[in-house]
Amino acid sequence: MTSGATDSSSSAPAESNEQSSSSGTTEKSGESHTAEVADGGDADEYDGVESIPDTEFGEIDVDLIDANPRQPRTVFDEDLLAELVHSIREIGVLQPVVVRQKPSDRSRFELIMGERRLRATKDAGLSTIPAIIRYVEDTDLLRDALLENLHRAELNPLEEAAAYGQLLEDFGCTQEELSERIGRSRPQISNTLRLLRLPPLVQRRVAAGVISAGHARAILGLRDPEHMEVLAQRIVAEGLSVRASEEAVVLLNRGDSINVSRATTKVAPEFLAVAERLGDRLDTKVNISVGKRKGKLSVEFANHEDLDRILSLLGISNEDAI
Question: How far apart are CA 77 and CA 251, in angstroms?
Answer without folding.
Answer: 37
